[in-house]
């Protein structure tokens, strides 16, 4: 009986301590990403939420102030996403590389996109802005989805997965050439 009780106690200890260790590693990564994010993103990460929605031909990255009345954060989000669009269209993904690391999933493929292969449209939304990515190249779409997943993981509670049905109209209105 003592052996069974000891085995149960040891099993319980192992079961409760292993997830905590993994959670601490995730927390450390999220904190590190947030620290580096301050060097790239002009807005307060804790005052905003990032929503990443995968779509069949790309995806939508939306950033909005948690308080839509916080006009300073809204302005900073909009300026930042406009700048990101411009940089990304030139193949410059140095911001995400600085925040998430050189080996961030999807980035190497996105960097290699030829002009016109990855369309990126900017749009103001209530409380912030969004970038809509579209490509006919399945490898670029897969890379974009990997990149979204990595951001969801790295930004922790400040990021969430969106739902494609929220963006269904994207399937019916193709982006103009150049992605405006």
Would you write up a description of this structure?
Keywords: Signal, Transferase. It comes from Azohydromonas caseinilytica. This protein is of the alpha+beta class. The chain has one domain. Helix content is 47%, strand content 18%. It contains five helices and five strands. The chain has a five-stranded mixed β-sheet, covered by helices on one side. A hairpin with a 2-residue loop joins strand 1 and strand 2. The protein is globular, with a radius of gyration of 20 Å. The protein starts with a helix and ends in a 19-residue tail after the last strand.
> Which class of secondary structure composition applies to the elements?
alpha+beta
Please count the beta strands (DSSP E, at least 2 residues each).
5
SSE order, one letter for each helix or strand:
HEEHHHEEHE
Structure annotation, total helices: 5
What is the count of structural domains?
A: 1
Going across the major beta sheet, what is the strand order?
Answer: 3-4-2-1-5
Helix fraction bin:
40-55%
The major beta sheet can be summarized as: 5 strands, mixed
Give unreliable regions as ranges. Answer: 4-25, 168-180
The Rg value, from CA coordinates, equals 20 Å
N-end to C-end Cα span: 72 Å
The average pLDDT score comes to 75
What kind of oligomer do you see? Answer: single chain
Shape: globular
% residues in beta strands: 15-25%
Key traits:
single chain, 180 residues, alpha+beta, 5-stranded mixed β-sheet, 5 helices
Summarize the entry for a quick read:
The protein is an alpha+beta fold and 180 residues long. It has five helices and five strands; from the N terminus they run αββαααββαβ.
């Amino acid at each position: 009986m003592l052996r069974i009780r000891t085995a149960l106690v040891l099993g319980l200890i192992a079961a409760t301590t292993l997830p905590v260790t993994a959670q601490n590693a995730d927390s450390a990564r999220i904190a590190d990403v947030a620290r580096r994010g301050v060097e790239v993103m002009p807005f307060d990460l804790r005052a905003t939420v990032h929503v990443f929605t995968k779509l069949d031909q790309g995806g939508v990255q939306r950033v909005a102030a948690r308080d839509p009345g916080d006009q300073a954060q809204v302005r900073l989000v909009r300026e930042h996403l406009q700048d990101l669009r411009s940089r990304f269209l030139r193949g410059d993904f140095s911001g995400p590389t600085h925040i998430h690391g050189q080996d961030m999933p999807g980035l190497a493929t996105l960097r290699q996109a030829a002009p016109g292969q990855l369309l990126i449209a900017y749009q103001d939304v209530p409380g912030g802005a969004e970038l809509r990515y579209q490509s006919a190249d399945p490898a670029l779409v897969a890379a974009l989805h990997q990149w979204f997943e990595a951001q969801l993981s790295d930004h922790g509670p400040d990021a969430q997965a969106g739902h494609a049905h929220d963006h269904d109209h994207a399937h019916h209105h193709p982006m103009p050439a150049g992605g405006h």
